[in-house]
Design a protein that fits this description.
- The protein is α/β, with parallel strands linked by helices.
- The chain has a single domain (about 5-225), classed as Rossmann fold, CATH 3.40.50.1240.
- It contains nine helices and six strands; from the N terminus they run βααβαβαααβααββα.
- The chain has helices at about 15-25, 45-60, 75-85, 110-115, 120-130, 140-155, 170-180, 185-190, 220-225, and strands at about 5-10, 65-70, 90-95, 160-165, 200-205, 210-220.
- The radius of gyration is 17 Å and the shape is globular.
């Protein structure tokens, strides 16, 4: 039985999101964060967002057949808190192909840090563009799309018709790229004026015509439950000035 309904959730605000935003504002070169990316937990606000997601999930838990999550702590925490708040007792499939994009030598660097420490890499990124630029030791958006194609090829033909996935903003964007499908220029134009908010829900359905986007980055459930809405960039790999 093929999956016909897909709910894409970005994890709640993490302490890494907060630290990265503060480092950019303060003009630091390096984001002061001790945890490796896979171990970054939710902030207090992120935990509130995850609980608010649980209230949204409570009304839909009977219709969602499967739950997937990135192995990164902030995604697993988001789904665990949401399931607990919803009262659902569900198994979660964790798959490393849903992890956040790896930044290699740019990891933990702010825009200022990249410009000062790796000016040649910033110039190379301008030349190649966001989609194909692969920082040394890291991944391009195209690399992430390749692993998502592998995951989706298996997962979307699995049991159940409606599934929910908790991952990262780049993963949400690139699932849209793969499923809708979009060209490189269409994806980048969409990403330029659309932000995947923390704790947001993006909804796709599959018909005989293929996949269609129903809602993007919906946060009505956060506002309804009184949780803060946050729009931190998913990684410090921002557009060069």
């Amino acid at each position: 039985m093929a999956v016909r309904e897909l709910w894409l959730v970005r994890h709640g605000e993490s302490i890494g999101n907060v630290a990265a935003t503060r480092a950019e504002i303060d003009g630091l070169e390096v984001i002061p964060l001790d945890e490796r990316d896979a171990d970054v937990p939710l902030s207090d606000t992120g935990r509130e967002q995850a609980t608010a997601l649980g209230a949204w999930l409570h009304d839909r838990r009977a219709t969602i057949d499967a739950f997937w999550a990135s192995p990164y702590l902030r995604a697993r925490e988001t789904l665990a808190l949401a399931l607990d708040a919803s009262g659902a007792d569900a198994a979660v499939v964790v798959d490393e192909r849903l992890r956040d994009r790896e930044l290699g030598i740019l990891d933990l660097l702010t825009r200022t840090g990249v410009a000062r420490r790796h000016p040649d890499e910033m110039a190379r990124r301008r030349h190649l563009g966001k989609f194909y630029h692969r920082p040394p030791g890291g991944e391009s958006w195209a690399d992430v799309a390749l692993r998502l194609r592998s995951f989706l090829r298996e997962a979307l033909e699995g049991p159940g018709e409606s599934v929910l996935m908790v991952a990262h903003d780049a993963v949400v964007m690139l699932v849209l790229y793969v499923l809708l499908p979009l060209r490189e220029d269409e994806l980048l134009a969409f990403a330029e004026d659309h932000t995947v908010l923390n704790g947001s829900v993006t909804h796709l359905v599959r018909s005989d015509r293929g996949w269609e986007l129903v809602d993007f980055s919906d946060v009505a459930h956060l506002r309804r439950e009184g949780a803060d809405v946050t729009a931190h960039p998913g990684s410090p790999d921002v557009e060069p000035a």
